[in-house]
Design brief:
- The protein folds into two domains: about 100 residues, no CATH class; about 60 residues, no CATH class.
- Helix content is about 60%, strand content about 5%.
- It is built from eight helices and two strands, in the order ββαααααααα.
- A two-stranded antiparallel sheet has the order 1-2.
- A hairpin with a 2-residue loop joins strand 1 and strand 2.
- Helix 7 packs across helix 8.
Length: about 170
């Protein structure tokens, strides 16, 4: 699956040669997958060339691997952080990341949504119609997930402690 290329834990290690990092393997990693993503979502990046997006992809990978704090973050936290702090620097690739992150790509995500729907129906009313259930689900998922993103944007970790600033 092309979206798996976003998982920074699978990126190649950068090898240092004489105090200078060798980014060749990292730069080549995921080019085919990013090209597929660009092709799939070309309506969202119609105003730019694929080369511009690929250039940002290469630059953002280099930045992430050079910052140990970013490499240690879990997948969702990393991309939430990147979206909240680096959108001006990498607008094209992060536009695609934001689109990709909105899709549930495995069955566990679907199961969680179905479980949430069942919980909402059980708690409020067993005969809740779709026009009422849909906003309830949106509210529950957005409020649950946005607290973390709002904390990242404010520079606070989940426990309320300050995050280290990026240089």
């Amino acid at each position: 699956m092309a979206l798996s290329v976003l998982n920074h834990k699978w990126w190649p290690d950068v090898i240092s040669k004489q105090d200078k990092p060798d980014f060749l393997q990292l730069d080549l990693f995921g080019l085919r997958e990013i090209s597929l993503i660009i092709e799939s979502y070309k309506k969202f990046v119609a105003d730019v060339t694929g080369k511009q997006v690929v250039d940002e992809w290469t630059a953002i990978k280099r930045m992430v691997v050079q910052k140990q704090q970013l490499m240690m973050m879990p997948f969702k936290r990393l991309w939430a952080r990147m979206l909240s702090m680096f959108t001006a620097q990498y607008p094209l690739i992060l536009r695609l990341v934001a689109i990709a992150m909105t899709f549930t790509t495995d069955t566990s995500g679907c199961e969680r949504l179905i479980s949430l729907m069942n919980d909402l129906q059980r708690e409020f009313q067993t005969r809740m119609e779709h026009d009422c259930l849909r906003p309830q689900m949106w509210w529950s998922t957005e409020m649950h997930g946005s607290a973390h993103i709002l904390g990242m944007a404010s520079g606070l970790a989940e426990d309320g402690s300050p995050l280290e600033q990026e240089s």
